[in-house]
Amino acid sequence: MHKSSIRPRAILLGLLAGTLLCLATPYNNMYLAATPLGGGHFPLAPFILLVCLTVLVALTARVFKARPILTGTELLTTWMLSVVVSGIAYTGLMRTFLLNITAVDHFATAGNRWSETLVPLLPKAWTVSDPAAVELLYNGLPGGRALSWQQILGAIPWSAWAAPMAAWGIFILLCFLVLICLVNLFSRQWVVNERMNFPLLRLPYMMEESFQEGRVGGFFADRFLLVGLLIPLTLHTVNGLATYIPTIPQIPTVLLAGPYFAKTGLFSGFTKLKIYLIPAYIGFAFLASRQISLSFWAFFILGGLLTGFLSVVGYQVPQSALGVTFGPTLTMAEETQMIGAYGVFFLFIVWLARHHLLEVVKNAFSTKSVPANESEWFSSRLAFWGLVLGGAGLTAWCVHFGMPLLVSVLLLAAFFVVTLVASRVICQGGIAYFTLTAAPTDGLLALFGSGFFTSAGLVMGAVMQKVQFLDLRESLMPSLVHAAKVGEPITRKRLYFIGMCLALGIGVVVSFVAMLALCHKVGVRDLQAEWEISTVLRVYEDAQRLLDAPSGPNSWIIIFASTGAVVMMGLLLCFQRFYWWPLHPVGYLTMYSSAMRILWFSFFIGWVCNQVTLRYGGIELFRKVRMLFIGLILGDFLMGGVFAVVGLWLGQSYQVLPS
To answer: How far apart are CA 503 and CA 1, in angstroms?
Structure first.
C-alpha cells in the first residue's frame, strides 16, 4: 500500500462528522427507534458520509478540472474518525450509562430491598445522590417537550451530575487509554506480521482505490454492482412503504424455520431457528475468507446438533445448574464452553505474537530510541508503559472505591482479555454485529464463587461490566483495530492519533450532553427504552440474588468451560498442523452468540457463492461477482440512510438494519 500524507482538513472534517453523529444518535435511536446511525462495527452514518464525500469530491474535481480537495487516504481518515466515536453515543457507552448510575435508587422498593442491600454497597460518587435530579431524568422536565434545546440545557441540574461524571469520567478515560495501548501493541502483529484479513474494510478500500485512479464513476456504474444494488433497493422500498402504508404487503425478511423441527430428538436444538435475509451481511460474508465464513455457520449448526445430541443421550443439564450469571444471552450450561474457549484463544493470540511481544518488553527497558512502526500510532515502548500505567490507574480506581486488590486485578484482566479476543473475532471475521455469550465475570464466579468478590466488589464489578464490557455490539476496540489498519500508509501518524484522541474526548462529552438533554426533554419513561431498562435491572437483580444466596464454585460451568478449552486447543492444533483443515477456530467462539442466530444464514449464502464462484469461474469471475455483493452492501446502507432521513422528517422510521 502506497504511503500518503494527510492534512488537518481531513481531521477537522472527521471531528465535525463525529460530533454531529453523537448529537443526533440519541434522538434517532432512542426516541424514533429508527435504523441506528452508528450501529455495529460498520456503522451506517459514517459510511453514508464516505460514499457522499467520495462522489462529491470526485465530481467537483472533474467539473472544475482541478485537484481533489481531499485525497483517498484523507477520505478514509475522515470516515474512520467518525467510525471510532459512532458507538459512544449508543450501545458503546451511553445507551444504558445514565440508567446504570440511577436505576438502583429509582427502582428501589420495599419489596426488592435495594435501599438496604445494594445502595450501601455502591460508592456514593458512582450514583446521582439527588432524588429530584433522578426523577427529572425518568419523567422529564415539566413541559419539556415544548422547551427549546437551549432551555433544556439550562434547566438540567448539572451540580447533581458533577460527582458521578467525574468518577466515571476517570474510569472511561483509563479504559480508553488501556484499549489504545493494547491496539498499538498488537497492531504490528495483526496488521504487518500476520497480514490479517479485514473484510469490513474491503469496500472502503475499493472505493479509495477507484478514487485514486480517477474511476469513481466506473466503480458505481459497474453492471454487477448495479444488479446487487437493485436487490436491497427493491426490498426496502417495498417494506419501507409498507411501514407507512399498511395496505402494501411486506416482503418477509425473517423466516421461522423452528416449527419444522421436532421438539425432541437430534434436531431439538433448532426449534427456535430463524432465517434472516440481510443483503449487507451476505455481502460481508462473501468478502470474508471462505474458511472463516464456513466456520461461522458450520459451528452454529454444530451447536444446535450438540444440544439435540445431549438430549438424545439423556445428558440434560437443568438451567438451574447455571446458577446466577451475567452473560447477555447465556441460557444453557453447554454454552459456558465459551469461557474456556476464550481463555485458550487468548493464549493462542499471545503465543503467535510471542516474538513481537518479547521485542516490545526489551524495547520498553532499553535506552535506545524506539521509533513507531508502520501500523503503530506511537512507539511500542510508550504503548507498554501506557498499558502498565492505565492498568495500574484502573486498579487504583477500583481499590479506592472499596474493591479488594486481587479482585480488581482479576476482574480487569478478564474484562480486557475478553474484549481483545472479541475484537480479533470481529475484525478477522468481518462481523458487523457481534454479541458475547458469557460475561467476563461468569468465569470468575464459576471458578471462585461469589464470596471471593466480597459484597461490595460483586456489585461494583457487575456495574463496571455493564457500563463498558458486557454489550460489545459497538465496542471501541474493534474500531481502534480498524483505525490502525487504515492508518498503516499514513505518514503523519501523530496528526492522525491526535485527531482520534480529540474525537474520543469530544464524542464522550457530546454524547453525554445529548443523551441527558433528550432524557430531560421527554423522560426515560417515554423513550424506546424497555430493553435498556430491563437489562440494567437484571444486573442489579442478579447481584441481589448472589447477595441473598452466595454461591461457591460451579462444577457444571467448570466442566463445560474445561471442555471448551480442550475443544479450542484441539481446533488450534488442527488449524496449525493440517493445511487441509477446513474450520477456523474463531467460528467456535461464536457458536452460541445471539448475533450468529441472525448472521448464520448470511454467512452460509456468502460462503456458498464464494465457493462456487472461485471453483467454477476462477479469480477473474470472482472479481466480477464480488461487485454484486458490494452492491448488496451499498444498497442496504444507502436505503438505511434514506429511511433515517425520512424518519427524522416524519417522526416514524422503517428499520433497515438490526440494532
So the answer is: 26
pLDDT, average across residues 134-163:
94
Other C-beta atoms lying within 10 Å of the C-beta of residue 36: 28
91: DSSP letter? T
pTM of the complete model: 0.95
- DSSP class per residue in 399-450: HHTT--HHHHHHHHHHHHHHHHHHHHHHHHHT-SS---SS-HHHHHHHHH-G
pLDDT in tens, 439-495: 999 999 999 999 999 999 999 999 999 999 999 999 999 999 999 999 999 999 999
**C-beta separation of 61 from 70 below 8 A:** no
pLDDT at 1: 56
With 0-12 / 13-18 / 19 or more C-beta atoms within 10 angstroms meaning exposed / middle / buried, residue 534 is exposed
- How far apart CA 202 and CA 634 sit, in angstroms, is 12
The dihedral built from the CA positions of residue 208, 422, 374 and 197, taken in this order, carries a sign that is: negative
Of 3, 1, 12, 2, give the one whose Cα is nearest residue 78: 12
Closest CA to 520 of 31, 19, 18: 31
What's CA 343's distance to the chain center, in Å?
20
Residue 261: phi, psi to the nearest 5? -110, 140
Specify whether the CB–CB gap between 302 and 583 falls below 8 A: no
**Distance (Å, whole) CA 238 – CA 233:** 9
- Report how far apart, in Å, the C-alpha atoms of 419 and of each of 56, 293, 324, 409, 475 are: 37, 21, 22, 16, 8
Q: Which residues contact 141 (CB under 8 A, 6 or more apart)?
A: 147, 152, 155, 520, 521
Measure the CA–CA gap between 51 and 605, rounded to whole angstroms: 26
Q: How far apart are CA 561 and CA 31, in angstroms?
A: 40
In b/e form, how buried is each residue of 640-655, taking b as 16+ CB within 10 angstroms?
bbbbbebbeeeeebbb
Residue-wise pLDDT tens digits, 238-248? 999 998 888 99
Count Cβ atoms within 10 A of the Cβ of residue 313 and give its class: 0-12 exposed, 13-18 middle, 19 or more buried.
exposed
Q: What's the grid cell of residue 12?
A: 477537522
Among residues 353, 469, 453, 371, the alpha carbon closest in space to that of 406 is found at 453
Whether the Cβ atoms of residue 500 and residue 14 lie closer than 8 Å to each other:
no
- Minimal CA–CA distance to 240: which of 513, 561, 643, 530? 643
- Interval 398-420 mean pLDDT: 97
| Residues 363/342/390/79 CA torsion (nearest 10 deg) | 90
DSSP letters, 460-513, are: HHHHHHHHHTS--TT-HHHHHHHHHHHTTTBS-HHHHHHHHHHHHHHHHHHHHH
Please give the grid coordinates belonging to residue 558.
467448570
Residue type, 599: L
Residue 653 above 80 pLDDT? no
Q: Is 38 exposed, middle or buried (0-12, 13-18, 19+ CB in 10 A)?
A: buried
- Angstrom distance (rounded) from CA 590 to CA 509: 33
Residue 275 dihedral angles phi and psi, to the nearest 5°: -115, 115
Could you write out the three-class secondary structure of 556-617?
Answer: HHHHHHHHHHHHHHHHHHHHHHCCCCCCCHHHHHCCCCHHHHHHHHHHHHHHHHHHHHHHHH
Three-state secondary structure along 244-296? HCCCCCCCCCEEECHHHCCCCCCCHHHCCCEEECCHHHHHHHHHCCHHHHHHH
How many residues make up the chain in this entry? 659
How far is 250 from 505, CA to CA, in rounded Å?
Answer: 43
